[in-house]
Design goal:
alpha/beta, TIM Barrel, 8-stranded parallel β-barrel, 36% helix, globular, 453 residues
Length: 453
Amino acid sequence: MPTASTPGGPTRGHLPLVVNMQPSGVHQGAWQAPGADPRAFVDLGYHRELARQAERGVLDAVFLADFAALQPESHRQPRWTLDPLVTLSALAGATEHVGLVASISTTLVEPYAVARAVASLDHVSGGRAGWNVVTSFDPASARNVGLAELPDKAVRYRRAGEHVDVVRALWSSWEDGALAFDRTTHTFIDTAKVHPVDHHGEFFDVAGPLQVPPPPQGQPVVFQAGGSEGGRDLAARQADAVFAAQLTLASARDYRADIRARAAALGRDPQHLLLFPGVVVVAGETRAEALAKRRALDDLVGTPEARLVNLAHFLGVDQALLRLDRPLPPEAHRPATHGADGFRLAVLSFFADGERTVGDFLREGSFGHRSLVGDPVTIADDLQSWWEGGAADGFVLMFDALPSGLRDFVDLVVPELRRRGLTRPAYDGSDLRTRLGLPAWGATTREPQEATA
């Protein structure tokens, strides 16, 4: 199979693709589209269909975002409701190959619970689990778990770093050979090879060991989402891969170089830190067909101003300040007390030239991520140029409407990517870590090992 070489990166065999399983699609009008099921956001059959479509396209993983509270925009469109781990555990039995990545907050959930749940998902899926580390920026989610308010960002990121340390230690608390299964001595587990972690830190006291045997992957893949300074430092130290909002090739290339430089400064191999920018894809046989799909959804929402609610919410500004025919107002450039820094910085980079308007953003970079609206060749050209240009190691795919948008991608774009040798024709049976080109993790040595596959 042809391979591609990127600046500062190794020769790679295929372009990793992860599907963000939105409750109906990222577009506010998706649930109102003809044939759409408004109840799909709580229907396992809907999520099963998405996972199976991803598997039909030989895509690498599906991913579930999460909030622990009803969201302000929930009156306009379905938002995250079902627990990611419960949903993905059900999907493990409905699929055979596709990776299963759950978002779990280090601010709202204790390390032992995360380690046990994700290790369990890795076992029941046969080595397909991933954890998307988030620190939570939603005050309502904090109140739902008994926190009067969220800690400030610096504290949340310190807690996140310690949290991941503890989870990784728990995953490595069993040596190879601890499962003795020795009928002669009647020894089921060799407890001499199972070790407490005895962690006593700033935020957590955890005895360990984990009650779950080592995950099939050794360490499930750790994803991370965050574009602030704290987020970049956390990614450099702890993440295998980073989900990021990046709207231009130049900013994505700079971001990738920055987090890899930070990883190298910490003694990590920077090639083992992968960047997955998000991209919203609307595919058609022709560009005109794809644009018609987007316009049809826009028409369902009502006035263009109605689509500003999500942008205003994530930027932390009054929606009334946003005008379609004008650039962002000065208020939107001020640091927010809460919110997703990565999203905000990506949005601000879109308006950096001072000429682009809010209306331009809704057309080109809506939902905080780039929009690719076009025919299969154009979409494949764009993804390939970012991948080969050192701006991405893979992509998180989002779609205006689901499951139709994912079906269109698998039917139209995947064959074009496959024709170019960018995607695999079939799964090779490897676990998620190996499929993404990450090093294997040795249980005995308790550190990453160079992959031999």
